[in-house]
Amino acid sequence: MQRLFSLFFILLLAQGIWGCSDDPLSADEQLRSTIREAETYIQARDLSATLEFVHADYRDNNGFDLRQLRAMLAGYFLRHKSIHILTTIDNIEVQENGQAQVLIYAGLAGSPQDRERSLSQWRGDLLRLELTFLQQDDDWLVSEADWRRATPQDFMH
After folding, report:
1. 86-110: per-residue pLDDT in tens?
2. Model-level pTM?
3. Torsion-angle region of 72 (φ positive above 0: left; ψ -120 to 50: alpha; else: beta)
């Protein structure tokens, strides 16, 4: 089960597709787009695309690096033929040094869920993820992750 939770924070990484607007997106909008795009890649079980969005020096609170993460994701994608995700971004703090701290609550399930249902009603695993993103050129890459199982108290604020 621990590997499942380690996996999910990685599932939330992706390079954003910033759209075709003439107005550049703010860092906050880029990060939100990145997270939405990540859901698509993860649900498609696309290992290569998912790993493109992880910083080469990635580390998490379980001591995983990029190599260990790759092995864990490959195994997870092989074991789970269906992945369904629902995320709620609780907070984004963009810093001047090209970093951002993002707090995300996420639901992960093997069967479809009602997208109108809140995470507090999710039938599957619920996670609290604190992610550090680094900006490289126009991309946001996850460099650090700290996660834990979400509790009912997390949804009462």
Report:
1. 888 999 999 999 999 999 998 888 8
2. 0.81
3. alpha
Cβ proximity of 113 and 125 under 8 Å: no
When pLDDT is averaged across residues 108-119 and rounded to a whole number, the result is 76
Domains of the chain: residue spans and CATH: 2-155 (3.10.450.50)
Distance CA 74, CA 77 (A): 5
Burial state string for 68-88 with b = 16 or more CB within 10 A and e = fewer than 16: ebbebbeebbeeeeebbbbbe
Query: Which residue is it, tokens 């859901």?
Result: 39
CA–CA gap between residue 97 and residue 61 (Å, rounded): 22
